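Hi team,

As requested, here is the filled-out complex form for the L-homoserine run. I kept the field names the same as last time so the parser does not choke. Let me know if anything looks off before we queue the next batch.

— J.
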Amino acid sequence: MLTVRAPATSANLGSGFDVFGVALGTPADVIRVERAPETRITVTGAGSQYIPEDPKQNTVGAVADALDAPAHIKIDKGVRPSSGLGSSAASAAGAAVALNALYDRGLSREELVPIAAEGEALVSGEAHADNVAPSLLGGFTIVTDDSVTQVDTSIPVVACLPETTVSTRDARGVVPESAPLEDVVTTVGNAATLTVGMTRDDPDLVGRGMNDQIVTPHRRALIDGYDRVHEAALEAGATGVTVSGAGPGVLAVCHERDQNAIAGAMIDAFDAAGIESRAYQTHVGEGAQLYRD
Ligand SMILES: Nc1ncnc2c1ncn2[C@@H]1O[C@H](COP(=O)(O)OP(=O)(O)OP(=O)(O)O)[C@@H](O)[C@H]1O
Ligand SMILES: N[C@@H](CCO)C(=O)O
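And here is what came back:
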């Protein structure tokens, strides 16, 4: 039996749609695997009632197929599905690490990125790797069609998760097919600023670089209470706020001293919109951890 703790992630960070991602210190999925003649999946934990155990519909089934590694896979969900915190990706990344070790496939974490992304194709229609990459590698990741770049950082964040859900598939449906050059230029500048901020562990630069005029304006409308929460987090000291992944989670970057106030302000703002929520006060953290029982 092998056990992997695979972290939640936040993708996009505003200016890096389908490119940027960070691993979060909490929450995380725990995946346990043992060899079996055929893949069988059991799911417990947060939102498990909404997650199919059929290997053809679960992200870990796609990973087991891609690695030709049949197993009994137990998923204990810490990351609620349809959260914007990379729930489907955490399971896929955890299974990729676990099955790679269980069957001695010898693949590197980088080589596991496209394999874990097969699970994302199953649930959202596209094999975008911006959640699986940070869950596998930790820190801040930049994913392009043919490369993954990783930077270790420990920027403080607050990830606020309302009780509502948004499907990634639906949220991809509202993304415009083209954008004015002016907005693209601004977004490139912001993305570059954010990247430098990550390399310097500088929450002010990262926050400044999170602004996005292309995707986020269309997505915020899918999240009840978003505008209040965004404003409240900034007033409480966040250096940048945006939709986490496809939402409805909202990510605030900040200095550690402001974390508590920001978490409270975000919860209160969702509450004022009639929505219960919880806030994870955490840092950008490490990638999936493997434990041999
Ligand atoms: N192992 C799994 N864990 C979580 N969700 C899964 C898993 N396998 C299949 N799913 C399905 O994937 C969907 C959730 O994935 P989705 O990408 O919409 O949310 P998310 O991963 O929380 O969000 P995001 O990618 O925006 O961070 C649900 O329909 C769920 O049933
Ligand atoms: N980049 C993807 C991530 C989903 O978590 C999207 O925003 O659709």
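Two things worth flagging: The chain has two domains: 2-151+285-292, 156-282. The CA atoms of residues 16 and 191 lie 6 Å apart.

Thanks,
J.
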